[in-house]
Design brief:
Blueprint (H helix, E strand, L loop, with lengths): L1 H29 L3 H13 L5 H13 L3 H14 L4 H13 L11 H10 L4 H24 L3 H34 L2 E4 L3 E5 L8 E6 L3 E8 L2 E6 L4 E5 L3 E3 L3
Antiparallel strand pairs: 1-4, 1-7, 2-3, 4-5, 5-6
Helix pairs in contact: 1-2, 2-3, 3-4, 3-5, 4-5, 6-8, 7-8
């Protein structure tokens, strides 16, 4: 019992300390001390605390410091954790404009684009919470329909139950779809100023392209110190792991 109490006290102390650093970092940012703020935000991350707001603030710091790779990386992390936040998405667009990367982005089109955009209005955790709440509504309506003897109330309970069931199916699908989409995507950001894209996982192979800091790639395979990646124009190649950082490892 004492060990549990000590553990809880330690966790609470850690959370308070992290929040204190976060507040101090916010103050430094307001004073235009972006380097000092970034260092404190990084220390909060190293303590185990993580949130969309924290990554968003870090992205803003690195954007002000003109550190393209870290700025895009943290905006991507924030967007992954809170895809519905417009400020994060807008700042990510601004950060990408700092990059000298010239690889074209081929956006999704048609039905796939519609599904991705629709399911991304909330994080899958929130879709799951909505599904649970709707489950209670469905059970409550079923109980009301079963217990009431008044026909008008039966119709009301039945109508609400059917509507809630349909929305429950949609939210369940959206949550699973977005979770699978996020976990099947393995985006990474180039941190090196220049990084050669090779045709094979060896430095002796041909360099087909040179990526610039801030370029976004998708990791398909790992082989020792090399990553097989897909670029935003769907071309393939190999990069050394020390030049990139995975957003969703």
């Amino acid at each position: 019992m004492k060990k549990v109490i000590v553990f809880l006290v330690f966790c609470c102390f850690g959370m308070v300390a992290a929040q204190s650093k976060f507040d101090v970092a916010n103050g430094l940012y307001q004073k235009n001390d972006f380097k000092g703020a970034a260092q404190l935000y990084e220390s909060v991350l190293q303590s185990g605390e993580e949130s969309a707001e924290l990554h968003y603030n870090l992205g803003n710091c690195y954007y002000k410091l003109r550190k393209v790779g870290p700025a895009i990386f943290h905006f991507e992390k924030a967007h992954l954790m809170d895809p519905s936040d417009e400020a994060i998405e807008n700042n990510l667009v601004f950060a990408r404009k700092l990059s000298l990367d010239t690889i074209p982005h081929f956006p999704k089109v048609g039905f796939e684009k519609m599904v991705v955009q629709s399911t991304s209005i909330m994080h899958y955790d929130r879709w799951a919470l909505l599904s649970i709440l709707l489950g209670f509504v469905i059970v409550g309506c079923f109980a009301g329909y079963y217990l009431t003897k008044i026909s008008s109330k039966k119709r009301t309970y039945f109508s609400v139950m059917v509507a809630a069931f349909l929305v429950w199916c949609i939210s369940l699908f959206a949550g699973f779809y977005q979770r699978n989409y996020i976990h099947n995507q393995h985006p990474a950001i180039v941190f090196s100023d220049k990084l050669d894209l090779h045709t094979e996982p060896t430095s002796r192979s041909t360099s087909s392209l040179q990526l610039r800091e801030g370029a976004k790639v998708y990791v398909l395979e790992k082989s020792g110190e090399w990553l097989k990646v897909r670029l935003t124009d769907d071309s393939l190649g190999w990069l050394q792991t020390n030049g990139v950082r995975e957003v969703n490892p």
